[in-house]
Amino acid sequence: MDAGVVIPAAGKGRRMGGPVSKQFLDLCGVPVLIRTLQVFLDHPAVSQTVLAVSPQEVDYVRDLLNRFRVPAGKVLVTPGGRERQDSVREGLKVLDREWVLVHDAVRPFITREQITTLLQQAEAGGAAVLAVPVKDTIKEVNSDGLVDGTPDRSRLWAVQTPQAFRRSLLVQAHEEGERTGLAATDDAMLVEALGAKVRVVEGDYSNLKLTTPEDMALAEAIWKMRSQ
Ligand SMILES: Nc1ccn([C@@H]2O[C@H](COP(=O)(O)OP(=O)(O)OP(=O)(O)O)[C@@H](O)[C@H]2O)c(=O)n1
Ligand SMILES: C[C@](O)(CO)[C@H](O)COP(=O)(O)O
Question: Is the pTM of this model over 0.90?
């Protein structure tokens, strides 16, 4: 299989806070973005890598790639957009492989094996996402802060990235989402809106999305645990 990956890395990290966008924060000596990127650069099935970054950070990212000896030409850097969905759409414009992975820059704990399994599942049905069963009870809460309902937890999964798709399906989903104004928090939501089936592949809880400050402490602990 010959795949490409779009890594949305144009966020501002508002929930993380601080002066540095979280994708550039140091994780045990290496920026989060570089750690995430390296897993895909080392994967035999991934032959094209696209980073969608904030327009103001394109030069900074290119310098970062040089400093961490990412071979010139191995990574395409393109300006992202206002929302994550827009950044992924911009990345798709410069990616031309038949199969596409979309992976958050701020999920540095993805593994080669998970990427391989996900691509195999996507190849079987057109779309696949990594996810884990939720551990907490989830409640629907109304604007008054009152519980509206408690969905059956056995049917609830916390979806992660990578998400893998046949490129033509994902492009169609993004085009339709843009046409209808669907604001999607993940790419699978756009594909579901087309009526396409999305396969869930069980990942693991360490595939953390670095979002709020305590996640950095968790990330250091996970990194150290894995390095033992
Ligand atoms: N306009 C945007 C917004 C987000 N992202 C990327 O999408 C991934 C997941 O988004 P999230 O964790 O929400 O990052 P931020 O938007 O930066 O966080 P926040 O919502 O706290 O500002 C991150 O790698 C982020 O850089 C992006 O490429 N373009
Ligand atoms: C795509 C995602 O990581 C799946 O869980 C998540 O929806 C991204 O949300 P964010 O608010 O853009 O971080």
Answer: yes
Exposed, middle or buried by CB within 10 Å (0-12, 13-18, 19+), for 6? Answer: buried
129-176 pLDDT tens trace = 999 999 999 999 999 999 999 999 999 999 999 999 999 999 999 999
Which residues lie below 8 Å from residue 178, measured CB to CB, with a gap of 6+?
89
Radius of gyration (C-alpha) of the chain in whole angstroms: 17
Going by C-alpha positions, the residue among 8, 160, 170 that lies closest to residue 90 is: 8
Contact 13 CB / ligand 1 (< 6 Å): yes
Separation CA 32–CA 25 (nearest Å): 6
Task: Identify the CATH number of the domain defined by range 3-227.
Answer: 3.90.550.10
> 207, 136 in Cβ contact below 8 A?
no
Structure-token pair, residue 115: 């990427």
For residue 9, the CA-to-ligand 1 centroid distance in Å is 7
Ligand nearest to the CA of residue 36, numbered in listed order: 1
